[in-house]
Each structure stands twice: as structure tokens, then as C-alpha cells.
Amino acid sequence: MISRRWILAATLAIFAGPGQAQSVKLSANEIEILLSGNTAVGLWEGTAYRQYFDADGSTIFAQDGARSALGEWRVDADTGEYQSLWPSDAAWESWLVMEYGGTWFWVSKTTPPTPFEMLDGQQLVTE
Question: What is the pLDDT, as a whole number, of residue 39?
Fold first, then answer.
């Protein structure tokens, strides 16, 4: 069975064109496919994290040395942005999701592009 992530990566490769790496902003539908039911892994402010995006709109953020946080996530179809809401937030925070040279990036107006990898399914615990 071909994973949704593989289909998305292949689709983006077609649009990137041969021989040149191009930055690609994911559409709302592509973000839904990439995140839903999967786990993002990367460094956040220098500390390793894992974030699972449940298809029901809940998300769990687990960071080394800290208590896990339960939040909500959604994709704004009009703006094509991933949005998250955590218990301490007053409003939804928006992020673009980009792909460049085979790497995914969170991009916002207030932080530099932050690379991450995607793992299939819920993988909050490392083996």
C-alpha cells in the first residue's frame, strides 16, 4: 500500500521540475494529507520534539524533558495555512507548510523556516 506521504512527495516532485530544487508552498489539501494521522519530528528552539496530528483535530506535542501538551489543529482552506491552538493561546496561530529539496518546513512571520520530517502514524515515543 502506498502511503499518503509518498503520493504527496511524488506530486510535489513533478511540480518542482527537473534539475532544480524549488520552494513549494503546500495547499490546504496537501497539508491535510501530510499531517493527518502522522507525526512531525524535528528541533524546536534547539530541543527535539515530536508532534502527532490526529485526524479528529487533536494534536499532541512531546518535547524532550517536558510534559506533553494536548492542543487542536486545523487547516484554513482559504489561506492554505496549518493552524494550531494550545491551552495557553488566546487565538489560533498560523503557519505555512513548505517543501524544499525534499525537506518540510514550518514557516511563520515571526520565526525562521524550521525543518521537520514526517513519520507515518503515531510515533510519539522513540524506540
Answer: 98
